[in-house]
């Protein structure tokens, strides 16, 4: 007997949920906001929009299909199955958050507040989900990025991977490019991003550069990389601070700090930790995001 597909809805707590978890009651949350010139009604409106979208998505799941629901914070502990169809309800970043835990499962991005989000990855309204589930194999593939430690650990991201010091202290490492150049750095860390990430953090860094490298497209098997705020000193340089990686090329970082970490797409809790002398290589991942168009 063929196993029925499972729809896994992914969401994160609303601002109202966060406020109530912190302050305990609506009255206390309203007072906290009022003291800062904000109104609970605005937060309630956004919460209601998310709730309505989740209700609509739930009603769209065929009765003979299985279903599941996972919060963003629980993604590292959730086991996705090959037959799953994932519906991410929230901001664009939520799709990136879930992508790293998937291996080819189709993802439908649902925007609960059309017009507020950019809609790069959450392209659909909740009322379109019923039809999208029936054609969930019609996807566009998006390139992902992978970081691998010399001890075999690896980390995958959709937008970018950041490597730097766990605090705001300087990140110290030696960077090596695919053409054999090497340089010792003291910086605010390194970003390696995809064409999808070119609209996010990497895009912000690129706009601050007078002559940034050409950013790849979302499906192009290439990456862009940037060193943030490199410090020029007798021991450290600033010549190798940006570039592009092809499909078979790798950027290499060798840690010269005790507390360097690497994480993907803003999920700092799910990270690799580099001891002094460990080597991290970053390049195009074999895995791709299957985004339902």
From TrEMBL:
Which SUPFAM superfamilies has this protein been placed in?
A: NAD kinase/diacylglycerol kinase-like
Q: Which InterPro entries match?
A: ATP-NAD_kinase_N, ATP-NAD_kinase_PpnK-typ_C, NAD/diacylglycerol_kinase_sf
Q: Which domain of life is it from?
A: Bacteria
Q: Which GO terms describe its molecular function?
A: NAD+ kinase activity
Biological process according to GO: NAD+ metabolic process
Coiled-coil annotated spans: none
What PANTHER family has UniProt attached to this entry? Answer: NAD KINASE 2, MITOCHONDRIAL, PTHR13158
Q: What is this protein called?
A: NAD kinase
